């Protein structure tokens, strides 16, 4: 088993006034050659956008972009004709492919919106751009794993052009579960602790810590308080 630990306070920090963001991996003005990615997981940004503020229209291509709202409402518009709002409990995915333009704004006039922005390097380039969002039943992740993303359109959650699986769980204090990798030969798992305290394969973790694990078949997870966890299983090679 190999691991890499990223404590919450070691992440990159960007404060633009209207946007406060913590970067697990190198992004924009934050650059650390030791923290460029975890396998094909390229970006994990923990964003907070002020009231009536947001990201103006900008381009992407050849990237799988996943947004997971944590608090508040996020408005999305793109040049594919989509105009939507995503909220806590939703998950949004965009395959940028040959190129897409989009904007993201806080849809709330009186409170910030908090969300995770995640980029995964795809296993196919120049695909037709696409957009999807779904609403998840968050009760289905209480003390168990809820799959929210996979490579397969027919599976639970959204899908992307990559052999990746994301799961979320809300564990009560003292509860335990095991996560078995879908492809233990090629993949690793990056665990991001949204809330609480947890021990994964013997490593104690706290809120907003990240732990990458590879060359392992499973993860043993024990909640040391009420906790919320995002598990991202991704290929370790591009």
Number of helical stretches of at least 4 residues:
0
User: How much beta, percentage-wise?
Assistant: over 45%
Which residues form runs of ≥5 with pLDDT under 50?
Answer: none
Radius of gyration: 17 Å
Strand order in space, largest sheet = 1-20-17-22-15-13-14
Structure report:
The chain has 238 residues and is mainly beta. The protein has no helices and 22 strands. The protein has a seven-stranded mixed β-sheet with strand order 1-20-17-22-15-13-14, with no helix packed on it. The protein has a seven-stranded antiparallel β-sheet with strand order 2-3-4-11-6-9-12, with no helix packed on it. The radius of gyration is 17 Å and the shape is globular. It starts with a strand and ends with a strand.
Brief rundown of the structure:
This protein is mainly beta.
